Amino acid sequence: MRGIFFISLFFIFNFIPSFSWACACGCGIFDVGTGSMFPSGQGGTIFEEYDFMDQGHNWSKSSKASNDDNSDKRIRTSFINTGAQYMFNRRWGIQVELPYDHRYFKTTDDSGDIVSFTHSAAGDMRIRGIYTGFSADMSTGLTFGFKVPTGDWTYPHFDRDTELGSGSTDALLGAYHRGAITTDKRFSYFIQDNVGQPFLTQGGYLPGTENDAAAGVYYNGWSMAGVKMTPVAEVLNSYRSRDRGWPAHPTDSGYERVLISPGIELDYKRVMVYFDVGFPVYQYMNGNQLAASALYKVSVSYMF
What we know:
Elements: H1 2-14, E1 43-61, E2 63-64, E3 72-87, E4 92-108, E5 114-122, E6 125-131, E7 140-148, E8 169-180, E9 187-200, E10 210-219, E11 222-224, E12 227-240, E13 255-268, E14 271-303
Antiparallel strand pairs: 1-2, 1-3, 1-14, 3-4, 4-5, 4-6, 6-7, 7-8, 8-9, 9-10, 10-12, 11-12, 12-13, 13-14
């Protein structure tokens, strides 16, 4: 019954306009999936994650459009997340993440000239509590907390929807469930959903609401030279509503996209390395927006 409840919760979250990670380019999609540090026992984990997205194709509604229709030409971003997670016992834990981002932005200025800018700065810190007391195996959990506006949202050459920080404080809520498909537990599945609600904003800009979710299967039966190898196949869904406020561009903001993401996890003693690539199979963009042809994610973690 517990698994049915969380599967139902997953679908409910994905068919309502949910809430925001407040990142205009949709970086919240990197916070769901196999590399999300699902807890499995008491103790701690430190991790470093690198995500990359190169938005270079103009997209309108459900198809690719002419780049001439968009004044923005390219947004290329590297996200570096440093974090720690600690489970005090089999019920309660905490996770803290601090991103540092590097962004290249190519656009058209007021004179009609093509200009480009590069900026690196801290992003918005995320602090979450974790509850896994639904079952002895910690297979079901809830996360809750805040995103705080530690990121730079005042860089003069970026629009508010391309700043590295949103300027907003968000309440965060997430849920996940893992389970076995086969009796030997070699084939397993997971579902996950993350939502959040901005409740304090700055500078008149309210980011669009965003809901990021993942569902996947993985195989536990491979190992070589002491290294456990776990191939993963995921489907990711991301929904974002239009931005609001006087600095926003509501006509050219808001989207829905679905990605397939093959990946692999390598475990050796206390070290875990994870890598995946997400490929869009469906995208719907309001107005004209820059889209990426692939999303890359790699993380390294150490358990103690």
